[in-house]
Specification:
The complex is a heterodimer of chains A (312) and B (80). Chain A is of the alpha/beta class and 312 residues long. In chain A, 48% of the residues lie in helices and 12% in strands. Chain B is built from 1 helix and 5 strands, in the order ββαβββ. In chain B, strands 2-1-5-3-4 form a 5-stranded mixed β-sheet, with helices on one face. Chain B starts with a strand and ends in a 22-residue tail after the last strand. The chains are: A alpha/beta (312), B mainly beta (80). Chains A and B meet through helix 6, helix 7, helix 8, helix 9 and helix 10 of A and strand 4 of B.
Amino acid sequence: MKCKKCGGKASVNMRQHKLALCKEHYLEWVPEQTERFIKKYEMFARDEKILVAVSGGKDSLALWDILHRLRYQADGLYLGLGIDGGIEYSHESQRLTEKFANERNLNLHIVDIETEYGQPIPVLSEISHRGHGKPCAVCGLAKRHEMNRIARDLGYDVLATGHNLDDEAAVLFGNTLSWSSEYLLRQGPVLPASDGLARKVKPLCRFYEREMTAYSLARGIEYIYEECPFAEGSQSIYYKELLNQLETARPGAKLTFYLRFLEARKRGDLFIEKDPERAHLRSCPKCGQPTSTGDLCSFCRMIEKVNSAQAA
Amino acid sequence: MVKLILRDKEYEVKPGMTLLSALQKISVVPESVIATREGEMILEDEILKDGDVVKLIAVISGGIDNRTSNIELRGTSHEM
């Protein structure tokens, strides 16, 4: 297969775009497309400060690399989760993230959950009895809370995450299967800032996961290849596998699924919206972040439960 | 023979077939991997030669958070 730009041997083939590129032209194409998506969805401007949530995985490191190449003001945030799983998962993730930042002289903030809240994620999950025996629910809750808190505390204009199209399509698929209308109405490349919430953006949301892997390999980015020990058998991975089977038979199916959803959402074709962003939201009396509950937010409740259990 | 390696598993296929045929033979969904040979990415139409060692890099990751909402909601959802 030949590169569409130079006729040389292609390294990456994107069947959904009917586009094959050699390594050099692929490494030019990805930042060009990212810039296009940043502008199309009005994610951020050149003078804004961006905090990139980095996990040590391919997507978030690739995002940071691309934003750096595009000369945006992008610092990194690594959250230490305290997950070992017999492979020192968090330790290795942090090592690779720090190595990436040091090699490029980038500014990285590191926040350790155990230092901040007394226990690592698996123990917080165990004590709080959230998540049916797996720490993923507590992990997600803590990450959302902390990323938002830190972005606001440190004065960043926007929080960027490395979600790719496969991530977005899997979420969309899951929420469509259960017709979770509230979640469907909120999904998109940009989650606007509102009281207590930093703006959140997903500049990689139109790249396939396979494309981000190819980008990381072509750029020589060293990322954590091992999966989180708790992700095995997860619903998100199952949905991604199903969607990849569909994609193999019908190239472009994942992209169409996501883009048509965004178009329908923008037109207001999905559901009748009842001011979804602000519906039933109040400020948590402890941390001040928005919550749909009438009392403490889920995160603060979880921490209180942990503290009570430990004091008993 | 051609050796294909995916995580801790190894497969062998006959030389002369394309990468796509080899992936189908070992029941690996092509969309779910990137194939490399001697450190370089190769595409599905590549003819595999005797002695080739092809490393398959899994592309799927899961467990990332904050997919759907930046607002805390009760109940089940897909906020992976």
